[in-house]
Amino acid sequence: MENKKIAFLALSLSNGGAERVISNLLINLNKEYEKYLILIDGDDIEYPYEGEIVNLKFFKKHDGVFKYLNYLLSYYKLKKIKQKYKFDVVISFLEVPSFLNILTKQEEKVIISVRNYTSKAFHGIKARIYFPLIRKLYNLSDKVISVSKEAGEDLIINFGIMRKKIEIIYNFYDLKKIDILSKENLEKEYQNIFKKKVIINTGRLTKQKGQKYLIEAFSKIKNREKYNLVILGNGELEKELKEQCKLLNIEKEVFFLGFQKNPFKFLRKAEIFVFPSLFEGFPNALSEAMACSLPIISTDCQSGPKEILEDKYGIVIKEYENREKLVEELVTNIEKLENKTLRNYYSEMSLKRIKEFEKEKIIKKWEKLIDKI
Asked: What are the strands, taking DSSP E only, across 171-295?
């Protein structure tokens, strides 16, 4: 293994699935690598990391016009940083960092990591800007990492990315560490919530994640008095989702607990994990729930869930594009999992499946790619 100088390029290291993956890679990749973390907003760090931080941020503010000015100025700063450090490999996550990574390419190898089913990830003005850039730029990288086979096919079919450029590397999970974290005690303020059976969901509060369908389904389940619904995560729809709970008269049974650095201690104490997403890449939230031995109910959205669950490791809802049918199916399957024998079966299947994504197997794939590129 060569002593390569590698850099990860991202928007930030705050709450999010991609950011958690970067954190895990920095900590677990071979110690002989010289590691750097280049952040467009280096003031925003939630996850642990190893290596040297390089902060591209120019302005304290990172919203509105300042956000786009930061992106523009980051291009020039990143170019200089690449000249100064002479990295062997720069690996970028998400679209803006990947655009910048390719546009500033010099002698280093450029790897971009695509985290979503791209053709469904953007709409409106973002789609009109991002889609032409993806078609034009991604083939100029040395490798495009997709987190699922379906997401990789989407890039080939809908964006003209060359098949030889694409490599599938699934997300990985440190099951021993997750087990330790899951056994931590809950803070007193949360303990009463878990005196009832808990249905749980984790993820950003956005349209993509479909929490509004879960909330509607929760309001309709029989024996609702036995349950609380817990939602972990922040996002732009928080106010709207809380308003929905009030309108459905369930605001005292639904708990929005925000972003949690350790979601595993909440997951372990829950009864069922429900994942109503409308599209994904390779969903960390679902996999982390499986690592906590939770029975899973998930939409069959593109892409990821089906590759993970394979119709036997969890309950997969096919009719997710019909929103009324989705709510109906969520209600039916939540009620189905009141059966303890069935719940225990899916709990065992979750743990059995997630072992395929253990840290050691996936880290070897990353190291092989970095060393041979």
From this structure: 197-202, 227-232, 254-258, 272-275
